[in-house]
Design brief:
There is one protein chain. The protein is 38% helix and 0% strand. It is mainly alpha-helical. It has one domain (11-43).
Length: 47
Amino acid sequence: MSLKTPHILSMSDLSREEIEFIFQTTDTFREVGGRAIKKVPALRGKT
C-alpha cells in the first residue's frame, strides 16, 4: 500500500488504512533504530 499523496497536510485527509500503514512503517523504522548497526541488511556497505 502507499499513500494517495506524498504530503500529509491534515489527518482528516487520510483514510483508516493509510493511518494504519503509517503506523506500520514507523514500527519498522523504530526497529531499525534500535539495532546496534542502524542499517538494513540491503543497505549495508552502501554510502
